[in-house]
Write a structure and sequence with these properties.
142 residues; mainly alpha; 0% strand
Length: 142
């Protein structure tokens, strides 16, 4: 039981917080670009810096959920992981500096959807973490 609690506390929670922060930062940069507070080169380079680590982290998180037997979390993470793989294979994962204004609204909607998705995943993770902690503490009392 202790390993499951460590999995949720040490691996899942920090990864999900990092995904949530990354998605929020990307939405913030796109909003700044839309308001003309940042130039297209800086905006695209700042967003592109986080894309590949996010894709790798999402893939590792999906694989960890598969290998540790957390099937519901695995099924929740598979669609986004497959979408990331598809974007990477088509080489459409990075934001192009010359076309950033043309795809600004679509990218912003995509990032907001990912933000909502990561927020849902972190709520599930926190709920699961609390349940595991309560169950772990109850099993020690006996």
């Amino acid at each position: 039981m202790g390993l499951d609690l460590i999995f949720w506390l040490v691996i899942c929670f920090p990864l999900n917080v990092a995904f949530l922060a990354s998605a929020f930062y990307q939405v913030l940069i796109l909003s700044d670009l839309e308001s003309d507070f940042v130039n297209p080169y800086d905006a695209s380079s700042r967003i592109n810096y986080f894309i590949l680590p996010e894709f790798i982290g999402q893939g590792l998180f999906c694989a960890l959920c598969l290998f540790t037997g957390h099937w519901i979390m695995f099924l929740l993470t598979v669609p986004v992981t497959c979408y990331h793989v598809m974007l990477y294979m088509k080489r459409q994962h990075l934001i192009d500096v010359t076309e950033v204004f043309r795809v600004l609204n679509a990218e912003k909607k995509f990032r907001i959807a990912k933000l909502a998705y990561y927020l849902t995943i972190i709520i599930i993770t926190v709920f699961r973490l609390v349940l595991m902690g309560v169950y772990y503490l109850d099993s020690e009392d006996e």
